[in-house]
Amino acid sequence: MMSGTMYKTFDVAVIGAGSIGSSVAYFNAKKGAQVVLIDAGDIAQSTSSRSDGNVLVCDKQPGFDAIFAKASQDMFPELSRELDYDLEWKQKGSLFLTETEEEFEIASKFCQDMKECGISMRMMDQKEIQDDEPLLAKDIYGGLETISDGSVYPIGLAYGLALGAEKKGAILSLHNRVTNIEKQEDAFRIETENGTILARNVVDACGVWAPAIGAMVGLPIPIRPRQGQILVSEQTFQVARRKVHEFGYMLTKFQSGSYRRPVSERVEKHGVAFVFEPTASHNFLIGSSRAFAGEDISSEIEVMKAMAERAIRFFPVIADIKVIRSYSGLRPYTPDHMPIVSGTPVEGFYIAAGHEGDGIGLAPITGKVMADMIAGEAPFMDLSPLRYDRFFSKEER
């Protein structure tokens, strides 16, 4: 833990100790850089502690989005062995449910497009999904399985990466809010509540609060908080063995296409789509909702009812299981649903934010490519879809 004015100049200062910032700190420290990880609170105190820990490829768009996510997913087995922390990494695959024949046809085209990107998926008919998950409602039309999908303990991931960075020499400067950043000739002067920190490079990994840090160096960052709520069940029997969600989730997430799900007005109003995630504690999480509500993280009863309604529609047995609590988190949303992992017009100032609901799953690859970028090394693929300046015209750059 660091306090007081620091006269040493760090190679990299990472602001934000969630899963993304902790990963950026870890992979930079792994390269031998002198790193300081700064946060106004504790490790994983904000969005990372209010997520469901999914590491998915199935909910990505075919093309760059899916390939980038798969590269990150492939890093988890080694990372879980490498870090001296139990990440609870499990790779059981995931199951998308299609409620109607029309959804099944849309999912089949999506499946083919993803296969062409190298993603292992397969369509399942009604009998196959019933054999796979016997407690499903009997009228569910079919499904789509993604073999490689997995899950991780999200708080454990952030802690594992942050403490792993510390073991490699990084300094953790927690409970230390950044109040101002000044670009000097050869370093950034970072003013914090506990003193001054000097660094040659700065990475803004503050998620929904990234715009506030960007504003300190004169950079507008087009990220908005998008609220999502989750229900937590009591400890119970196995309802489903792995991640299960409705294919309508894709349509809700990206708000695209002309297809409309056969749902109630309440479900439609609150942007709710069924998501089920079993935990290591023998309970399960139910989601999800999407709403622009500023920084409000209170749980709304009508949203909770809509999520419960969708859950019971797919697994009727859930009607007899108690919900013990609910919580909300803020996803850092960008207009094209892709994160910003990029340098900026301010030399030495980088952004790793805007992952929306994918921060847990994309944490490893984001940390790796950001470390490569700062070291001046070529990335493993063309990262232009993640550039900061994609949101601005040539005149605005």
From TrEMBL:
<feature type="domain" description="FAD dependent oxidoreductase">
    <location>
        <begin position="11"/>
        <end position="373"/>
    </location>
</feature>
<dbReference type="Pfam" id="PF01266">
    <property type="entry name" value="DAO"/>
</dbReference>
<dbReference type="InterPro" id="IPR006076">
    <property type="entry name" value="FAD-dep_OxRdtase"/>
</dbReference>
<dbReference type="InterPro" id="IPR036188">
    <property type="entry name" value="FAD/NAD-bd_sf"/>
</dbReference>
<protein>
    <submittedName>
        <fullName>FAD-binding oxidoreductase</fullName>
    </submittedName>
</protein>
<keyword id="KW-0560">Oxidoreductase</keyword>
